[in-house]
Amino acid sequence: MKVNKPAQVKGNVKSQKWKDVRGKRHRPPINSSDLNSSPVMARVIQEHQAAVRKKKPNVKRLKKKAKTVPGSKKSTSPPGVKKSHTQTQTNGSSMLTVDESDESQDSQDWKALAQSTYRNGVESPDDMDIGTPGRLEGEALHYCAERDDRQKHAVLVMQKDQTLCFRGKCFLTCLYGRVEVMGFTIEEGQQSYPLFSPASHCPLTIVALGSADDTRDDGTEAAAILRKYLSSASRKKLVKRIRLNSSVILLEPMETPLTRFLSSFADLSELFSPPVTELMSAVLDTPLNGLGMIPLANNIEGLTMSKSYRDALNTVVNACRGDMDGCAVILVCGTKNVGKSTFIRVLLNTLLNHTASIDYLEADLGQTEVTPAGCLSLSTIREPLLGPPFTHQSTPEHMIYYGQSSCESDLDRYLESLKALWHRRSQSRETPVIINTMGWIKGFGFQLLVDMIRIFPVSHVVQLGHGGSTQCPALTPEFLRTAHGCQTHPPAQTALDEFTESHSPPRSYVHLIVQSDFQGVARQGTSKHQRTNEHRELSLLAYLSQLQSPDPGPVRPLHCLTPYQVPHSAVAVGVTHCEVAPSHMLYAVNASLVGLCCLGEKVMSRGGPVLLSQAPICPCVGFGVLRGIDMVRGLYFLLTPVAPSILRNVNCLLLGAISLPACILATQSGFEGEMPYVTTDYSFDLSGAGKLRVFKGLIRPGQSGTTQ
């Protein structure tokens, strides 16, 4: 695929220009950007954080369970999807307006059920298998689930320890009892939560936990709840299935700008359907299928936790809940495809059952959690992560665009970027911190792990492995006393150190080993959408879906969106991953993804484009697509979902090795003839046709005086 030369963009552009035009004639820019020293940077970061907080309100979870239906739900559903509401009293509880005749009838139904079921302590034949733990599938779903086609939702009754594994997407609201998804407990009285179970990742499993209150009445309360969501016939059928330890959940279809945007591409239209390997295990013709959910039979595994997996989770959660000296800082490491990201999501969700927020430091460039690939970021997680990364893309409090999915070409820039992010975090915060790391655990990758454990005040190191091994040396405190990193080295010690009063023992931490034993561990998925490069494309597409209108309607391709016009003199342009001749710089950035960054110094131009000779370490507030370049008028045309109030502070565009997905450019509708930015008249066999990779400062371990 070839990028055409910069050309004038036809069509409308936004009349509102970036107001932060630092123009006239100035000297060339200085490529220095200390993230922590400039007062301008402090103002930029404060404005950015204020915008993030305004965009993402903090919805606190209820401390006590409400005794009836939730009063209101989080407005996460898109227009066109109707959500149910009840009247709410001032104390946060809900009150139902019910018909007395229906209420008495439900009460009679429940009493009759209780008498028939528990007479002499013997269950009736029809109800013998109601409370059997295990997977809900097949015929069982017809007995414990009812769908209301008029309101477009379904109600499912689950007994304690029963599970539902599925593919698809939906909103889940707990009406009675408790359920758990990916470690997060959803109780009655809470908001509805979006669940995403695409074919790209392990299927989600809903686990019924029953009621936390053992003193509840005979179940007429649950029967009254059903009245709001089901017809009389369906209600009478389900009320027979409710027990004191039952959980009742409401499942509703979900359609968002993200799902509409992804489904507009032919290759992604079946993303939320079972993959080919699961088609024979899909349970069809159930009350749930019409809502975007496809249950799976019990031969398909959901999330599999080994004993060491559960023990490590319990140890970390108990440490975060206990009285530690300072906050817990948990570093998670391990080789590729061993389950680090899933472990972190479960850990985050479990901690959210006990605390309002967790800080998350992203150090994995290739498999980022809340941003597109190529970013290092520091985020505050306040809501559960109930899906893969592309389903919860958000704006971190602090972010640096490294521009590559691996750091092997510039290790120093990688470590300095992480240090800059950590220095931006308030040292007085007592919120737990989770650090995600790369799957590169050999050679320099292992030395980077040693550096990170020394750089950050780590309290726990969770090391994942498989097959009874960790695939690299165990990162215990004892091992770190003699290990060499890329930037750090063990302190020089003498025989007199142990007798010196001023000698302080090395800082210690808890080292935990987790053995993953799920199917396919240490192997990259081979089915469609399961490769790591496809995961990176999904995250980037999810970010670009924010350009779409929140209102229901057809998806608009890039050439139909109105771009911002940015003067050449207002921003500097740089490349992070390779050397580009100045005369070719604008050809390289045209029709590409760029990081929107904030240099600590003013951009000084002599009238033309401002080019950076090296990549700076500076804050990044988001991403944009450089749709076109007008050399005559001296304008860049940029598409971005970043708010205008934040764009005023942007004065640098950084191009990295993270490319736009091919489907973005290859599926532009409304054109006759050749598509913009796309050509087939190109040969990669020509000398120099491919990109040249530059490695900075890499030396072999044998040359650095290390033994690793």
UniProtKB/TrEMBL annotation:
Annotated region described as Disordered, given as residue ranges: 1-112
Bias (Polar residues) ranges: 30-39, 86-96
Primary localisation category: nucleus
Single Gene Ontology BP annotation: cleavage in ITS2 between 5.8S rRNA and LSU-rRNA of tricistronic rRNA transcript (SSU-rRNA, 5.8S rRNA, LSU-rRNA)
Gene Ontology CC, one term: nucleolus
Keyword rRNA processing: yes
Domain Clp1 P-loop: 334-466
GO MF: ATP binding; polynucleotide 5'-hydroxyl-kinase activity
Pfam families (alphabetical): CLP1_P, Cupin_NOL9, NOL9_C
Xref: PANTHER family: CLEAVAGE/POLYADENYLATION FACTOR IA SUBUNIT CLP1P (PTHR12755), POLYNUCLEOTIDE 5'-HYDROXYL-KINASE NOL9 (PTHR12755:SF3)
Name the record gives this protein: Polynucleotide 5'-hydroxyl-kinase NOL9
Organism (species): Myripristis murdjan (pinecone soldierfish)
